[in-house]
Amino acid sequence: MRAALFTFVYYLLSVFYVLASVPFLILPGHTPVRAIIRSYTRAMNLNLRLVAGIRKEVRGKDKVPEGAFVLASKHQSWGDGYLVYPEVDNLSFVTGDHLEKFPLVGGILRKLGAIVIDTCGGGERKAASLREGMERAKQDGRRILIYPEGHLAPVDFHFRYKPGVWHMAQAMQAPVVPVATNIGLYWQQQDKKKNPGTAIIEFLDPIPWDLPKDEFLTRLTVAIEQRTAELVAEGRGTPVKRATLIPDPPKGMEAKPTPENPAAYAKA
Known about the structure:
Blueprint: H1 2-21, H2 31-50, E1 54-59, E2 69-73, H3 80-84, E3 91-96, H4 103-112, E4 115-117, H5 122-140, E5 143-146, E6 157-158, H6 164-172, E7 176-181, E8 197-203, H7 213-236, E9 244-245, E10 253-255, E11 265-267
Parallel strand pairs: 1-8, 2-5, 2-7, 3-4, 3-5, 6-9
Antiparallel strand pairs: 7-8, 10-11
Helix pairs in contact: 1-2, 5-6
């Protein structure tokens, strides 16, 4: 019952706020749409707390620097973006240009300053569109959210961290702020089931952009995975358990590891 009611409110809020954005898509400026979407994520936080019983606790906000930076977050759930977005001003994200075929969604993305990647122009054009987007983000002082694993990770597991986050930091010449979370204990991946509890998001010490790629990725992986494991243990009230590295699932699939088969997956 709790999950069904949450899902109903989830879609009700989503439709309402998208429609509320429509009149502002044709007007100059981005402030109204950004304010509406920020209000939407706060409303979703309220839905999580009042309907799903999932409270939010934010730690480490004092570690968030001024100006532009890349936010590299653990991605355990569809819900972690809703937790992070209202906590960081001028936050945007990276997405493929396939979403622009939907008029309302494409318009909202542009107003939010999303970095839209040319996915049809080949590797060189894709890299160029990312580089151009990063340069604009730096000029605007924007913060860019990315999930460096590239997939929703089950609790106690992680994927290989991809080098895209390093390339983004290089293009912006801006630090990377790691984010750890344990929301997967309460809303796992795309599951409909919700478990009451306190979901924690924690901003960690920024990592310099000018490190060699391998050193950077090692530091980022260790920082996020170690702290995430500690937050998961805190939520469970158990000793810290180191996350297990698992292979990426095929496209359109979701990791569903078991003790017998850590590489197991199912349709997302």
